[in-house]
Design a protein that fits this description.
Chain lengths: 452, 452
């Protein structure tokens, strides 16, 4: 009964999505399709974000820059007056010192840059794209070699980060599921019969969702823990303030790597081997963790973009063409298949790029539409009152409520699969999992939300 | 006829994949499943790569470091002898100069660091994670703000890069398809009848594939063109040598950003506004292009990993358990469904992480297996004589040859879709598209290879 009502609810929801998806296109037949619109919106927002950031940093740092400039002028003046040094000669010396700096030489002795351990630290900052710049190749051979070395190294590290992301998301999703099931079992006194199919899932549906926010929270906490531990280590070993250490951790873990603060650069440390190992491990863990965190945050940004796009399109065009997403609740559900197909073809995210003169399969268009519908729902979020949760939560609800028909479909598919075209599933929903790291999250969390 | 033979060939191929996939598990029931093994193999190889890189850079740069050290000592000695300056006082001055350097002060006047345009350049290097470090926040407020600012900014930029990657891959795939079709039409004198279904595709199959290597080639060429154009600009504006300019381009575009060379730092340039704009555009284009290139290369690395894994597993275990991948040609094809199902369950990449006491749907296991089979084929490459092309090429062949049954399947699916559970496709092949950027490539190229 409840399952049936859910099935109906989700069908309504689906129709809304479809209608809303169609809305974007039937309202505005501009050359910008949904994907391009999202891309441009993001580019615009990043540009705005940069402008705001520039203004704030300028306000924060400009006074200090002026003070530092005045201070340096005074110091230089004092020195030349006291030792009667020609200012030109001193400038020459300082230029020479700058060049020496480039080769890694400082007044206070630092560890050698290009012994094996130093070079190892250097290549690690290259392939991770941190690039502190505490050591840089000065020879032409070194510079040319760096280009080819970095090309392979950075690609391999990107693959490493992506595989790490996949592993960590899998692990988190299963841990979250396990915790939730444990909690359910303790609360519900272990119902193991077929009743669980509806009651257990009903509880799950209300109480727990494999939400991207949880994943973000866990990764955020992990990052904070790693950064705080690392900062404790750095502030004691490097004599940095705790804020400086935290700042260094963020700059290193996010692979920005300014190089104003670089760990493990002095000639001698207490228990040097252990510190160097700890430094490497902290940076490795931190980079992996922050990379994953960035990707999770980027999902939320994508959802926000979709929400903004949906709002923009539907509010802007409401008066022009009595937007279907407003009628969807009552009408779209019962819309004839032919009409629906027209709408779905209209959503094709790649349609503008199709060269003229190519045949279009009606079947072929299905999978491209899957994208715009499962893909965080410019449509799903348009529906008023629906919270900004997007993909995973709604997918979860959806999967759970459609368990029965899903099982049928899976059986069908697995039967067809035995005859051969198994990759066709991959084609069938070319984009349903989202893009990049988003694909990983969706797939992992979708999986978690169904095969319970 | 030809189509039928292809169908059979691909069925054999599929069976080989399945069997080889099963091989990995039935031979070695270690806690490491395929995904984990790939991850560990990659980590190991990166570590080796780092060791080699460290050795080479150490050999290249160490002599220069020693010479630079000697040179600086001489320069310092000359200065102190000539002007009779106390060495301690000079060291103090140099330390002060280092601090001033941190605030962006040099002997030769540079552009202000924290006016609006300077701050904009700074935040752009933050969100892109280039992090030259030519300007770094010196105040505590600036450092703390940077952490929060970078967290959102870097995540948004990662999303931007991923969306760009998606756009560029779509574009490339369609351009490649279009070129190929044009070529076919010119050669084949425009056959537009239903015959094209077999003959045209037969030609495509032999002559053209939406290969990852082509994509890499195009992106590589684009990167080279951008880097060379940018280098021409930089070498004329900054008075760098051409090699230095190329080196700077790579370091900037790959977001390593050492900061030893930074463009647009002098106080005055000829046609300054145009140069700054050009600098920004070149860096933006370069970063996007190299990011895409890295991701394409990372696919090839993943294929190589799968190939190595397949080799390792099957050659290592051949004597222990008469590996099924050697029998697959004749046997696996006709293996009973039950036996096959056991194997496929065994390949589940997430099976080791499943908590105990959870129910397993036999259907639910299908989609996880799709991963290990379509996912670049540790199995596909095991088969001797098959070239190291992996995913896309074999997927393409597969899609083309299975066109008929695919169309049927698609119709089935689209019919079911109208009843509701459309996301189930996403679930059905949770991982078939690969991970991260790999997913994008696979999906885009799969799409290109079918809906012709």
């Amino acid at each position: 009964m409840l399952l049936q009502s859910r099935l109906r609810a989700s069908a309504v929801h689906m129709a809304q999505r479809r209608a809303a998806g169609g809305c974007c296109c039937c309202c505005s037949r501009a050359p910008l399709n949904e994907d391009n619109a999202r891309f441009c919106l993001l580019a615009g927002l990043i540009f705005l974000y940069l402008l705001c950031g520039a203004a704030i940093f300028s306000a924060l740092e400009h006074p200090f820059e002026i003070r530092a400039r005045i201070l340096w002028r005074q110091q230089l003046e004092n020195f030349t007056r006291r030792y009667r040094v020609n200012l030109g000669a001193l400038h020459t010396l300082l230029r020479q010192y700058e060049q020496a700096n480039g080769a890694g030489i400082r007044v206070d002795a630092l560890r050698p840059r290009w012994d094996f351990s130093g070079a190892f630290y250097f290549v690690a900052t290259v392939v991770s794209t941190i690039g502190f710049g505490m050591a840089t190749p000065a020879t032409i051979a070194g510079k040319i070699f760096l280009i080819f070395y970095g090309l392979i190294g950075c690609a391999a590290t990107i693959l490493f980060f992506n595989l790490f992301l996949e592993r960590i998301i899998t692990m988190l999703a299963y841990i979250m599921r396990w915790c939730h099931e444990r909690r359910l079992r303790c609360g519900g006194a272990g119902v193991m019969s077929s009743r669980e199919e509806s009651s257990g899932e009903e509880d799950s549906l209300e109480g727990w969702k494999p939400s991207v926010y949880y994943v973000m929270l866990i990764l955020g906490l992990a990052s904070v823990v790693i950064a705080c531990s690392a900062s404790t280590l750095y502030s004691s070993m490097e004599n940095w303030s705790y804020v400086d250490s935290l700042y260094f951790c963020f700059v290193a873990f996010s692979t920005i790597g300014f190089g104003d603060l670089v760990s493990s650069q002095r000639e001698r440390y207490e228990s040097q081997g252990a510190y160097r190992l700890g430094n490497c491990l902290f940076i490795l863990m931190g980079v992996c963790c922050i990379y994953s965190l960035f990707n999770v945050i980027s999902i939320i940004i994508k959802q926000t973009l979709n929400w903004i796009l949906g709002k923009l399109v539907c509010s802007g065009k409401r008066k022009l063409c009595s937007c279907p997403c407003l009628r969807s609740k009552s009408q779209s559900k019962r819309a004839p298949a032919a009409q629906r197909r027209v709408k779905r073809n209209a959503v094709q995210p790649v349609s503008t790029q199709r060269p003229v003169g190519r045949r279009h399969h009606t079947d072929g268009s299905v999978e491209t539409v899957c994208d715009s519908e499962t893909d965080a729902g410019a449509g799903a979020e348009v529906h008023l009152g629906r919270r900004l949760s997007g993909e995973m939560i709604s997918v979860n609800e959806f999967m759970v409520s459609n368990k029965v028909s899903l099982a049928l479909l899976q059986k069908q598919l697995s039967e067809t699969a035995h005859q051969g075209p198994r990759q066709s599933y991959g084609h069938q929903n070319g984009f349903s999992g989202g893009v990049g790291a988003l694909g990983i999250m969706n797939n992992r969390l979708q999986e978690t939300s169904v095969d319970r």
